[in-house]
Design a protein that fits this description.
four-stranded mixed β-sheet, N-(1-d-carboxylethyl)-l-norvaline Dehydrogenase, domain 2, alpha/beta, eight-stranded mixed β-sheet, 2 domains, binds NADP nicotinamide-adenine-dinucleotide phosphate, Rossmann fold
């Protein structure tokens, strides 16, 4: 059974290249004829590991190509994922499996609700990759991929294919808890690095602000039925800040490069959940308002 990879950006290329080199059947789905022509001109996908590039001539096609899709890996940004799936939905077999690599929360639930006949598997990845150029991706940080299905705890048999491809994977019985925890860490760190225009480590100078945010995020997690994900949130936030002290956060990099952020699925999702639960959380809301104003001033979408 073929893996269809929707979106040949950083993570999509990282997954596709590793699946292809393990001899597994993979097809890329690119957004339009122009991107397909650029891909063909590049002669395939290049993955750079430890400074060494290797090229994989993975077949690529357009969303309306013929052929049923049984297993779809969605590697678009959270704000593009639903519209991208809609372009291929007519090709999806009944009980098609859709793996969702998006950061944050909200896009996965919207997709699962719109295509209830599919099995949606949510993925939380701590791997790191970036695009050096079109169809040229650097594997920047090894990590783990947690996969899970909030509606069905039975792991799919094809997890063995990920092992075969050297893609670090773990099946999670509570993928929502993992995604919430990651979202909370992101909300405690990334927006402040944008507003203070600093590296992660410089948040040491803003300890009370980080602590107050962690307290409100813990309250939100507990009220959302994610009490376990609230445990030790502040100490883990400091562990992440120390471990990544020299780095600029992904949101900081997006803003610096004039790229749309995934704020709607991170801080935006936290605030929308607080609204639905009737929680005040004044610091989180103030942070959201400041970040949106900052994005507006930089000519970037506020959501
Ligand atoms: P990315 O490099 O921007 O790649 C996204 C890709 O989606 C682009 O190649 C884009 O095509 C493609 N795309 C968008 N709409 C499409 C459509 N309708 N049809 C086909 N392709 C479409 O993003 P990324 O960094 O891989 O991130 C993907 C998700 O993974 C995000 O939610 C991110 O937060 C999460 N994540 C990323 C990392 C990482 O290290 N990169 C780590 C953990 C989680 P074009 O090239 O034509 O624009």
């Amino acid at each position: 059974m073929s893996w269809h990879v929707l979106g040949a950006g950083s993570l999509g290329s990282l997954w596709a290249a590793r699946l292809a080199r393990a001899g597994l059947p993979v097809r890329l789905i690119l957004r339009n004829p122009q991107r397909l022509a650029q891909y063909r001109k590049a002669g395939g996908l290049s993955l750079i590991e430890h400074g060494q590039p290797a090229r994989y001539a993975i077949p690529a096609e357009l969303p309306d190509a013929p052929g049923a899709i049984q297993r779809l890996l969605v590697a678009c940004k959270a704000y593009d994922a639903e519209a991208a799936i809609a372009q291929v939905a007519a090709r999806c077999a009944p009980r098609c499996e859709i793996l969702l690599l998006q950061n944050g929360l909200g896009s996965q639930q919207a997709i699962a609700a719109r295509w209830p006949q599919a099995r949606c598997i949510f993925v939380s990845s701590t791997e790191g990759a970036y695009r050096e150029d079109d169809f040229r991706v650097v594997f920047a940080g090894r990590g783990q991929n947690w996969l899970g299905d909030p509606n069905d705890a039975v792991p799919p048999a094809w997890l063995a294919e990920l092992d075969q491809a050297g893609i670090a994977q773990n099946w999670s019985d509570d993928i929502l808890a993992r995604l919430w925890r990651k979202l909370a860490l992101n909300c405690a760190i990334n927006p402040l690095t944008v507003l203070h225009d600093c590296r992660n480590g410089e948040l040491r100078q803003h300890r009370p602000q980080v602590a107050a945010l962690c307290a409100e995020l813990g309250e939100l997690l507990a009220a959302s039925g994610q009490a376990a994900a609230a445990q030790g949130l502040e100490s883990e936030t400091w562990r992440v800040i120390e471990a990544t002290a020299a780095n600029y956060s992904s949101m900081h990099q997006d803003v610096r490069l004039g790229r749309r952020t995934e704020i709607h699925y991170l801080l935006g999702h936290a605030c929308a959940t607080a609204d639905a639960l009737g929680l005040r959380l004044p610091r989180l809301r103030a942070l959201h308002a400041q970040l949106r104003a900052h994005l507006r001033r930089h000519g970037l979408p506020e959501d």
